[in-house]
Structures are given as C-alpha cells and as structure tokens.
User: Fold this.
Amino acid sequence: MMKNNITMRDIANKLGVSTVTVSKALSDKEGVSDELKLKIKQLAAQMGYRYNTTAKAMKEGLSHNIGVIIPERFTGLAQSFYLIVYKQISLLLEQAGYFGILSILSDQDEEQLQIPKIYAEKKVDGLIILGQISKGYIQLVQEMDLPKVFLDFYDEHSDIDAIVTDNFYGAYELTNYLISQGHTKIAYVGNINSTSSIQDRYLGYYKSLLEHNIKLDENLVISDRDERGKYIELELPNSDLPNSPQNMPTAFVCNCDQIAYLLIQKLNSKGYAVPKDCSVVGFDNDIYATIATPHLTTMEVNFEQMSSIAVKYIIDKISSPSLKLGRVLVQGNIIHRDSVQNVK
Amino acid sequence: MMKNNITMRDIANKLGVSTVTVSKALSDKEGVSDELKLKIKQLAAQMGYRYNTTAKAMKEGLSHNIGVIIPERFTGLAQSFYLIVYKQISLLLEQAGYFGILSILSDQDEEQLQIPKIYAEKKVDGLIILGQISKGYIQLVQEMDLPKVFLDFYDEHSDIDAIVTDNFYGAYELTNYLISQGHTKIAYVGNINSTSSIQDRYLGYYKSLLEHNIKLDENLVISDRDERGKYIELELPNSDLPNSPQNMPTAFVCNCDQIAYLLIQKLNSKGYAVPKDCSVVGFDNDIYATIATPHLTTMEVNFEQMSSIAVKYIIDKISSPSLKLGRVLVQGNIIHRDSVQNVK
DNA sequence: CTGAAAGCGCTTACAG
DNA sequence: CTGAAAGCGCTTACAG
Assistant:
C-alpha cells in the first residue's frame, strides 16, 4: 500500500534541523527560538503534517481512549437513551483530549463472561460501564487492571466507584408529592429484584409511605419485567374486576417513563382515565414522558452532570490510580406536567 | 505512575527465548515448534499478558479505528435514530477487527470548517459520515487523505462514495400505493431544498403523479423546516378555511415519520381525522411510526444493510485505496399500518 | 526451528 | 538554543 505520510523527520530534513527541535516547536515546548518555531509550524501546516497520536501513545503506554460498555438490551429502538448519554460522554471526552470507544455487550458475551476486546487488546486506558451488568460480569470487570467506573447503577458487593441518580430520594420525593395531592392508595410499578435503580426507587416510595403512616400493600407492587429485563404484561390490581374502582389505587409510581406510558395505555384500555381516575408519575424524563398522553409528571435525571462526573473522574484516575470516588448520588428534579390529579 | 505491564519481552525472558519467537507463537505464525508455542501461550495467559495494539498500529501505520462523524443536530433526544445506526456500525466494526470512534460535529465547527480532531491526530484509518453536512464541509472532507464514505446522503458535486436508501423509488412506491387506494389530491410535506433525501423523495412523489397524469400542485408542497433544518409550524393548505375539506388533499406523503406524526397532530387540531378524512404516509419506520395514532404506513429504511455495506467498503478501501463504490441505493420496504384509507 | 537487527514516529533525558 | 541516543512494544526480513 502506498503511503504518503508526512512525519517530523520530513519537516526536520527540509529545514536541516533535528526531529527533537521539530517536536519541541510543534508542541510549544521551550528550547527553540521563536523564529525557528514559527518557521517549523508554517512548514508543517504547508506540508499538511498531521500529528501521529499513535507514536505518542506508544511512548506513554497510554491510548487516550476510554471504553464505554453498554449492555445491548439497553440500546434498542425504544430505549436509545443510553446512546444519547454515550454521545454526551464522547463529547466530553473529546474536550478533555480523549476519545470514546463504544463497546456493546451482548447478552451472550455477558453470560459467558467474555472479556471485551477493547480490554484484551489494550485499546483503552479506562472503562465506563453504562447500565447494570450481571454479578458475574461485575466481578470480571473488577479484576481488570485499569480505572473503571459504573454509571447509572452500582453494586453493593464490589467497591467499584459508581455514579447514580439519587433513585431513593427521587422516588421518595415523587411519592411525597402524590401524598401532598391527597393520594393514599398508591401503587409501585417495577420488578424490585431486577436492578439496583428499580429497587432503590421502590425503597424511596416505601420510605414515603412509612413517613405518612400508610401501610405498604404488597398487592400494589406490580412487576413490569422478568428477571432478564424483558417487559411483561402489566397486571392491574383487581384487573379481573374492571368495574370496582374502589379497589384500584388512585396513583401509580412507575419506575420509569416507558412503563408509565405503557401503564397509561393499559389503564385506558380498562376504562380508567389519567389523571381523572388515576394519577401516574414516571421517572427519567426521557422521550416517553412527552409521548404519553397526558404528558408525564416525572423525575428528571441529570445525565449531563452524571456524565461529566464520570468523565472527569476516569481521566483523573488514569494519572492518580489511588483516587477513590465511592458512590456519588446525583440529585434529580421533579418535572410537573399533566398526569397527576389533586384529589383533596 | 506505576505500571505493571506484561510484554512479550517478559514472557521471552522467563522462557529464555527471543521476543520474535513469542510474537510468532502468540499470533500462530509458522516457525515455532508446537511444543514451544503451547508453552508460550500458557505462560502468556498465566501472566495475564494483553496484546498491545498500539505497538502494532505504530508498526503498520494503521490505527484500526474508523471515525464516524454525525452532525450534532441529528442526535437530539427526539432524533436519536442515527445513534442507533452508530451502535450498529460499531458492532460491525468490532466484528471486523476495527473500532469505531464517534465524532459529533457541532453546528459551529461545521460552519467554521473546523477539522475533526480524529483526523488531525491520525486517530482513524477511515471515515464514515452519517447524515448530511454542508457543502463547505463536504469539500473539507473530500480533501482529507483517507478513505471515506457518506452514509444516508450524497452530494452530486463531489465524487465521494455514498450509500443511501432509495429515496426516489421509495416515495414513488408510496405515492403509487396511495393512488391505488383512490387518492388523487396528494400533498408532499418537506422542505425540498434542505437535504438530498427530502428532495429525492419529492421527486419520486412527483414521478408517480406524472405517471398517473395528476398535475403537480405547488400549493400542495408544504415546507417543514427552515434552511438550517429546524422544524417550522406546518401550514395546511387552506388552513384559514377549516370547514372547506373539499379543498384539502385527501392524502399526505411526508418526508419522514416524525413530520407525519406532527402533521397528524396538526390535522387533528383542525378537526380532520386520520385516516378517515386524510390519509398520511411517513418515511423511515423509526420510533415515530408507532408513536403516532394511528400507527403509520411508512417506508422502512434498511439501515442494517446500509451500515453493513458502509463498514465493509471502508475496510476494503483501506487496503485497496483505488476501490470505487459510486452511489449505492438500498431498497426500502413498505410497512402497512393504519394511516391510509381506501377511498375508491 | 530460532533469533539479531532494524524500524514504525514520536519524546525524554542528557550533553554541548 | 540545538541535537545524538535511547526507548515505548511490537513485526518483518533476513541469517543461521
């Protein structure tokens, strides 16, 4: 293959200087006269010189790439939210002089504990894991010899640093808000054994009930997905008795906007209007929040801040491996829309 | 910074052989006895050796990265479709031994003809440009010294290879279908000067009209966005006369599903029901197709095939720079749903 | 079957 | 202010 690469050597030869001088001039280091520096820069531009990052990487032993691993199940047409977060991360990385490499983790690779190529081939200096992975895979990641951080989930049994939205407090606030609007019979929708987020949101909901002396009713905890994360048909309490609204909750705390969206469809199909008959709140403030009719009152997750902390941390950790972050909780923000009715 | 890197040197030293032998053994090359080869592989695994791609990249002058440039305006919450395509591309690249680096092109960088970092720093061996860029930027890309391909748009004035869906034929088919259902007064929705896709879809619509001896009515060509791509309020024909349905088209060919979705809302707000009063077809089969009520009859774009051609081509082109692809048209596929009424 | 030498394009540490 | 030497971790071409 023909290559017409311009290197520092070429510039040096043309000017009768050494590559050392060219290197110093191009990176604005001391030890070259201003005059020569200018001449070198001009010639470089004129010759179409491009800096070879690979050589630098070789020298430093650092690729200046950060890997972002996302489990495939979180990247479908309907759930492209993490891809938007990835975009954000890649932008922030670039501003910091790094580049992101996306690695989609298939269900199969996750199950078979397949080591990601980006790690096995030393493609990256650090890893951001975006989206809950299995226990086994967490352990695999933990043994990897580079800085890593979990984003949007954590694991209580490993000490990998994690950045999550304040799920607990968010659901707590949302439930408090429903109660302030006069609701007392409030359901929670989500499989509370499937991810740490869903579980923590559930606990926040529960805390709010406790504080208001409302007894937790297990019949009002409605699962939304199987253990593999696949959505299942929602079962309304008393769904076999469509005409007994007195047994229905007056409000639903959904673990995410998409489920809130699906729940509303289900409620409508059973003859319940939202928010007239039932109030519904979501979580995430993603695209489903404004696709739903009515638009959802929900908890906005501050992904920009979360991404920004993740990027800053992972880069800092490359130069200071002893850095510890622990578990960072990023506060969300209630967005008031039209899915909650005041029943006082 | 402490580094505990295992290199081929370390393995070689432990075994009292040369790095050449280790290199050959690990990459299954000839010239090492099977016995020694096995011993080397075992020791490598045991020592936790990871292959250093950067060294290989240095040697070959090839990074084994492919850059994917997406203009920022195509990556919003509501339009994350290209990010899903990016995911697909990154998966295909990984299968082929490459990695994708996403580079989001901001409006500002596009306007100021800022050279992408991934190019200036020789981070990538090839470039996939996903989504229409400005004329000026096309020229900048054209001058770049590496293989590149346009995905989902093309430019008639440059000879960069391009892979697009068959917009022309797709809109032609969709319009034919509407006519077969008895429609004759058919509008087109889209700014026909904004992108090659919208323009070609318009021309396909027009060809169908011509073939059926239906006169093109310029009042039925409705713009949907300004020259910067920002959506504008849709103006229905005769929208000032809400009660004169006799002047309304009975069908609308929309340049994309999102606009079809917005159009339906607009129609509803003016008192027109879809598909009872007006039929609507979309294009893309993206998330808006099933968010809309009714669900849209639309043209499914075969992005999997398009991505796969793009990846294959760019990789082939790295080893055979003289390769030419021209403009590849990938056929779409009509998806029949509920937004078209037979009016015969 | 095995290995010494050279080189990919930079940078660092040192000498002048 | 300027540059010769060495080295980052591999691979290729050649010699034995």
In short: Residues 5, 7-9, 19-20, 23-24, 27, 29, 51-52, 54-60 of chain B lie near DNA strand D (CB under 10 Å from a C1').
